[in-house]
Amino acid sequence: MTSVIEIEGLRKTYRSGIRRKGIDALNGLDLSVAxxxxxxFLGPNGAGKTTTxxxxxxxxxxxxxxxxxxxxxxxxxxVLSRIGFLPESPHFxxxxxxxxxxxxxxxxxxxxxxxxxxxxxxxxxxxGLENAADLQVRKLSQGMRQRLGIAQAxxxxxxxxxxxxxxxxxxxxxxxxxxxxxxxxxxxxKTVFFSSHILQxxxxxxxxxxxxxxxxxxxxxxxxxxxxxxxASYEAVLTDIPDAAIESLSRVSESLxxxxxxLHLVISGRDNxxxxxxxxxxxxxxIDSLAKTRGSLEDTFIEFIEQGLEGGKxx
Length: 315
Prior knowledge:
The chain has helices at residues 49-56, 98-108, 113-126, 142-153, 172-187, 199-205, 223-227, 243-251, 270-282, 297-307; strands spanning 3-16, 21-34, 38-42, 64-69, 72-73, 83-86, 160-164, 191-195, 208-213, 216-222, 233-239, 255-259, 262-268, 286-293. By secondary structure, it is of the alpha/beta class. The protein has two domains: 3-227, Rossmann fold, CATH 3.40.50; 233-293, CATH 3.30.70.600. The strands form three sheets. The protein has a six-stranded mixed beta sheet with strand order 6-7-8-3-9-10, with helices on both faces. Strands 2-1-4-5 form a four-stranded antiparallel beta sheet, with helices on one face.
């Protein structure tokens, strides 16, 4: 599939202080994003996520390196009409109503009057602000402002949408609505590139994720590949296990928890699983349930960040 974002050796150095000491926000970032996918861009605070997004949409210039967006090099103005962008902390004209604000953005894109009203109404409905259409922006809650920001990012029906922390400030209902909207954008053939610190949303949304640390790529790949555990892990619930067998089971289990007449086990590795099964059979016990598990994105994220890996791609 054709890449809609290609980044090669991207660097951004900020200079501050009397001696103009350089601070590297991006340190040779490489990244590729295919079309028609939901791509999660993850990293700890200060990893370079927002800097990357601002470079890709033309708000910052890189110190070195190359990037292409929708096949066009950076600074190619023709690409701006084909992308949408939600900044991390959007600011709007406070005394305009939601409807007036979106109409203003329609005018910037030279959308004809007959189309403007229909598009604004549809977007307000999509983000759940149809009942706040005539409310001034200054009266909106943080979550409502975030929804309005997502609506403005979609005002030009873009092919590629950049969202910087799109779930910030949203309640569970708002997060669900925005997740559904993002899935809907993909079903319409669009590409969504978003950064987030809410890893649960990335797990629920993403086809692929990339984790960066100190301005460099740590890992990139399909979510199921990144989450695949190095050694299979299993969760089992057992009943009718005599006390004599519990000690034997504890030796082949990562954890063992007795709750009334049921044993809950976490078993790591196929060999330990087979050994546990033999113990259960020999003791005339029963396996009520057995499930293979995988690590969470949060576990994987923390593991990569703490290890301080410097590169390499998965998947």
